[in-house]
Specification:
Elements: H1 25-36, H2 41-51, H3 54-68, E1 72-75, H4 80-98, H5 101-113, E2 117-126, E3 129-136, E4 142-145, E5 150-155, E6 158-161, E7 169-172, H6 192-216, E8 220-225, H7 236-250, E9 264-269, H8 278-295, H9 313-316, H10 319-345, E10 354-357, H11 365-385, H12 394-401, H13 419-428, E11 433-436, E12 439-444, E13 447-451, H14 482-491, H15 493-496, H16 503-516, H17 524-543, H18 549-557, H19 565-581
Antiparallel strand pairs: 1-10, 2-3, 2-7, 4-5, 5-6, 8-9, 11-12, 12-13
């Protein structure tokens, strides 16, 4: 059934003059007493006064407008196919035409501040569909009739009962379950009761501060009389001089020069006590109480330097309040607005979807990055401290920290097509590498050694004729533990500089990412570096490298103990102990 003609026109509030109150604690008590009986007029008047305060308004707007700016999604109800049509129509423009942000903001702000907000709907036909356009209404004309147990709103046509399920009025009470029921006394949960007295304290303190500044901001001009310099001052002439001087001081303007009569010394009488400090303390206390009452925490609504979340919803309003506002406002709008919209324009009101604001707190990218960096450094430190043969279970740590993981990309194989770029990259590292067709040779200690590459379907790794996957795990030479190598480099830089200071340092850095990944290369350059390591280790293992500290350090930089771990560790331990003793 389409809306009745009266439902297509807006209702006006009564033509009554506004009464402005110079609020006192007695007025607040009167408002509370009347509200307990269901009359909200004086409580609403107090709310209007509260909205004139910058702190109250800023806290409310941050809480409500911040919520309304969050991404909005739709939760379908009933038959998903039909409900999807309703959701698409709303998302296509009907929602925004009927429920402007200003109207929703007013409804929600009054719901939070007074405990119950009221709006009317004016039905209009747009694009072949009926839209109930939401319009705010003054809550001072709303009351709960405790005798008949019904909400009553005063209009220019007289009092109207708000009938549950009607198409005109919308009531939003965050503390009520479902449709607001006056028996639940939702106004008693409004922030006005917690904000009223702190606001009044701030109002009175600012008034007193102004009076204090008026009195103490201007010094009193006075003159001291010294009878030793000009008679006794008791004659009529002397009294006339004093009166003339008094009149002159009273009329002093800017840039005035006065030469006092003989025996008189001019001075300014100023207040020296810091009695003014009580006023900022009172206003700060009031502001803090107001912010706590509205946002749930004492975070300031002001933006300070370096405060990334100073003007954001999640940085100021307590998270549970954000989620509660989103839930209660969604229920209110769905049950009191969207059900009628779906019933008028679609087969059933039960198809009305639920608006869902995404209230998850945004991730602070900077803080997240710093925590992930600290986690990585912590894993490395724990690897160093782990017992021999043990290491940190990185997968378990990442899962516990909520860090998403993905499979590593397939490695780019070393092929004739990728070989030139890999050779060029290692040449940039300082290597003397000769490339002849698909044959690679590298100069090591003045001699060129052949670096086996894959051929005829065989990987030729770790040695010519072998067919293992190219990985440090399949190397013919042992691997230096990551924690050991990094600890030696970071804790003993003097010992670290004893060997491999050119190509060794570059190869250490080139293979470090491969070691962190467990030994598997991902690029053609990394695969060539792994193959080059095999050639270097074969050459130096055969030559007996490692008997000196220079050779041992060079081997570690190539990520190997050359299959003689005890010997090389002993050589390095002797050097590090001497380094520590120094």
């Amino acid at each position: 059934m389409p809306p009745a003609p009266l439902e297509t026109t807006a209702v006006s509030s009564p033509q009554l003059g506004r009464t402005f109150t110079d609020w006192t604690t007695t007025d607040i008590e009167v408002a509370e007493s009347l509200a307990s009986g269901g009359s909200l007029q004086r409580a609403a008047d107090l709310c209007w006064a509260l909205l004139g305060d910058g702190r109250v308004r800023a806290a409310l707007e941050t809480r409500v407008k911040g919520l309304l700016r969050l991404p909005l999604a739709w939760e379908e109800a009933g038959d998903r196919r039909s409900s999807g049509r309703v959701a698409r129509a709303l998302e296509g423009g009907d929602w925004y035409l009927a429920h402007s942000e200003a109207a929703l903001c007013s409804l929600a702000m009054w719901g939070i501040l007074l405990g119950v907000g009221i709006a009317q709907r004016v039905w209009v036909l747009r694009g072949g569909r009926w839209l109930g356009v939401l319009k705010p209404y003054d809550a001072r004309y709303l009351r709960w009739d405790t005798t008949r147990r019904v909400w009553v709103v005063r209009t220019n046509r007289g009092d109207e009962d708000i009938v549950p399920g009607g198409r005109r009025w919308v009531l939003y009470a965050p503390s009520s379950s479902g449709a607001p029921d006056g028996d639940e006394r939702p106004w008693m949960y409004g922030a006005w009761r917690a904000c009223g007295r702190p606001w009044l304290l701030k109002y009175l303190a600012l008034t007193d501060f102004g009076h204090h500044s008026n009195i103490h901001g201007s010094a009193i001009r006075t003159a001291d009389f010294d009878p030793s310099m000009a008679g006794d001052g008791k004659t009529a002439a002397a009294k006339g001089v004093r009166e003339d001087l008094c009149d002159t001081l009273a009329d002093v303007g800017a840039d005035t020069a006065i030469v006092p009569p003989p025996g008189y010394k001019l001075r300014l009488l100023e207040a020296t006590a810091k009695t003014w400090e009580m006023f900022p303390a009172q206003t700060d206390l009031s502001a803090r109480e107001i912010v706590i009452a509205i946002t749930g925490q004492s975070s300031s609504t002001e933006i300070t330097e370096g405060q990334d979340t100073g003007a954001t919803l999640h940085g100021i309003v307590r998270q549970d309040l954000i989620e509660a506002d989103a839930q209660t406002l969604s229920t209110c709008v769905r049950e009191q607005c969207l059900v009628d919209y779906a019933a008028l324009n679609f087969p059933s009101g039960e198809l009305a979807p639920w608006p869902r604001w995404k209230t998850e707190a945004p991730v602070n990218a900077k803080a997240r990055g710093e925590s992930m960096k600290a986690l990585g450094e912590g894993i490395v430190a724990l690897d160093r401290a782990a017992p021999e043969g043990k290491r940190v279970d990185r997968l378990a740590v990442f899962e516990q920290a909520g860090i998403p993981l993905m499979d590593a990309p397939d490695p780019v194989p070393l092929t004739p097509a990728t070989l030139p770029s890999a050779v060029a990259a290692l040449r940039d590292d300082g290597w003397a590498i000769a490339l002849a067709g698909d044959q690679v040779s590298a100069e090591i200690d003045g001699e060129y050694f052949h670096v086996p590459l894959a051929a005829a379907g065989v990987t030729n790794f770790p040695a010519e004729g072998d067919d293992a996957a190219v990985s440090l795990r399949n190397s013919g030479f042992d691997r230096v533990p990551l924690a050991y190598a990094l600890g030696l480099r970071d804790d003993h830089p003097d010992v670290w500089s004893k060997g491999g200071n050119v190509l060794g340092n570059r190869q250490f850095s080139r293979l470090l990412p491969v070691v962190r990944r467990g030994g598997k290369p991902e690029t053609a350059t990394e695969e060539l570096a792994v193959r080059l390591r095999e050639a270097w280790c074969a050459r130096h293992a055969k030559a007996g490298t490692g008997a000196t500290i220079a050779g041992a350090i060079a081997a570690v930089k190539w990520w190997s103990f050359l299959n003689r771990p005890e010997q090389l560790r002993r050589v390095i331990a002797d050097a590090t102990s001497k380094d520590t003793d120094r």
